[in-house]
Amino acid sequence: MDLQSSLAALKGLGPKSAEKFQKLGIFTIEDLLLYYPFRYEDFKSKSIFDLLDGEKAVVTGTVVTPANVQYYGFKRNRLSFKVKQGEAVVAVSFFNQPYLQDKIELGSEIAIFGKWDQAKSALTGMKVLAQVQDDMQPVYHVAQGISQAALVKAIKSAIDAGMAAKLSENLPQFLLERYRLMGREAAVLAMHFPKDLSDYQQALRRIKFEELFYFQLHLQLLKAQNKSETNGLAILYDESALNEQIKALPFPLTRAQQSALADILADMQSGSHMNRLLQGDVGSGKTVVASLAMYAAYTAGLQSALMVPTEILAEQHYDSLRQFFPDLSIALLTSGMKTAVRRSALQAIADGSVDMIVGTHALIQEGVDYHRLGLVITDEQHRFGVKQRRQFREKGENPDVLMMTATPIPRTLAITAFGEMDVSLIDELPAGRKPIVTRWVKHEQLEKVLSWMKEQIAAGGQVYVISPLIEESESLDLKNAVDLEHELAAYFGEAARIALMHGRMKTDEKERIMTAFKDRQVDILVSTTVIEVGVNVPNATIIMIMDADRFGLSQLHQLRGRVGRGDKQSYAVLVANPKTDSGKNRMRIMTETLDGFLLAEEDLKMRGSGEIFGTRQSGIPEFKTADLVEDYPILEEARKVAADIVSQPNWQKDPRWHVLLGNLKKSDHFD
Ligand code: ADP
Ligand code: MG
Known about the structure:
Blueprint: H1 15-21, H2 29-33, E1 39-42, E2 56-63, E3 68-71, E4 77-85, E5 88-95, E6 109-117, E7 122-128, E8 136-139, H3 148-160, H4 173-178, H5 184-192, H6 197-228, H7 239-248, H8 255-269, E9 275-280, H9 286-299, E10 303-307, H10 311-324, E11 330-333, H11 339-351, E12 356-359, E13 373-378, H12 386-395, E14 400-405, H13 411-417, E15 422-426, E16 437-441, H14 446-458, E17 462-466, H15 474-492, E18 498-501, H16 507-518, E19 524-527, E20 540-546, H17 553-560, E21 571-575, H18 581-592, H19 596-607, H20 609-613, H21 632-647, H22 655-666
Parallel strand pairs: 5-7, 9-14, 9-15, 10-12, 10-13, 11-12, 13-14, 16-21, 17-19, 17-20, 18-19, 20-21
Antiparallel strand pairs: 1-8, 2-4, 2-6, 3-4, 4-5, 6-7
Helix pairs in contact: 5-6, 6-21, 7-9, 8-9
Bound molecules: adenosine-5'-diphosphate (ADP) and magnesium ion.
């Protein structure tokens, strides 16, 4: 048995249960050992004098009467005994767990987790804890068919089999010493079964450092690679042709757009490789800038590709590019396309008769061959993993890469988290936009909102209604949206045409609905968050978000950005009855500012980085234990160390660094 063995090799686990663990991403014994609890139950014993009525707590003491089981009725019974803690004696009862009798030895020390009944001065036991001193119990994320107990048992079994000892140290000795970090084996053991709070804190500090160190090592390597690349394309675009295009736009570029475009063009023109992040709030005009960069590539005889996260967006960008550049040949490529259409698109892309390509993930799939691909742009890049971006990049001959995002990333975080990229910012909205008015209302006021909405619709307005977000449950998400549509249909009757859109729909169905909405054949579009990114319907001036307190501020801001795209006054209505102060605060902040950066900072403070970037889709790796905000000091330290290592001359020849690189390749978040 070794770290790479299947769990089935462990005592007490068969192939069947091993298979269940795969749902948690646990395949090998190593995976199991590195599957850390996400919190601990504090089972520190309490004095009975401190217990409140109904409180659940751990009580320790000496068993002073024999345990006695009383049966009454079918399968019902009560186990009772008394425990002495200091001078106090407490009656303890367990219901319907007669088998516990064996565990309760007269005169022994015992720890019981139970519920306190003040009036009777008695404890209703829920659990007999294994060890008296076991005051922190790990709590793991579990899946169906695997209980907490099963996880703990499996981990214990792996540890008993000596597996933790096989985990080799993956941090260099000098770092362990410099930062006084716990060794790896000890840290892993303490993550699961800490001796006490400080043992756990030390273990956590070490594990976080390890995660962030490898993350930074990865970034620094990318950066070094980029710097040393002289094989980037020097895209010699036709400046006067580009200027003609800019003049032909129906509006002047904002100062911020001009400066972002200048950054991008300079990168393109230079022989080194462009790796730039273009940040700008929703509606700030990033897409226009991207289109101009694509046009510049075209004038240099190069293809460019724009990749977006959804087919709806691909269609939308495809349409607007064709509007901007009626004389160019532009292709659309999505996986939902009919085979014949797709085949001819692929052909045209490969033989170079196409100048620009817009599409979804289909752009990086096998079988797509480009013809002199010089520029790659991804929209809403936080939706793509690092791996996908790299695949895309490898499709061409090292094309320049521009990533656009409307998720404002606070500067400090951008430097450390996207350390290998340059950043341009569009920090002003086009002139003439009316600021969106945001209102927070309680559910009780919904009637009023709806009647106001009815007037707005009668006057030709269009409305988005976003159904509540149910994290991790697509089916509940759907049910909520369907219910909401029914309620609205019942309320509006003939007064509004209502359509429903959700993530389970087929692409062409979504597209059909979106088009109907754009063409004003639909007044109210009820939707789950699938409309979140990029969609552009200037006539829609109201967005109502149900249970808005369930969303992060950045996400609310993104949703709000669906309106306010034309010259009419737009409104965002947040419907929420938040129970917590933080929830109320969040709603208030939303009504007070339209500044995406400020909201992102607040989000970071309140909810941590995982929330801002969304789980999973984020381009930033998900950390098991570290948080980019909370652990910023560790991140910064790790960055310095990693940069130091990478900047040493000939470091790649040092065998010690080979070990590091090997570990880096193994670490799962970077591929
Ligand atoms: P983003 O991609 O940042 O969300 P878009 O590029 O889609 O923003 O622009 C949003 C809307 O504003 C589009 O309808 C676009 O035509 C328009 N727009 C872009 N730049 C300007 C500008 N400088 N002046 C006026 N309107 C603009
Ligand atoms: Mg956009």
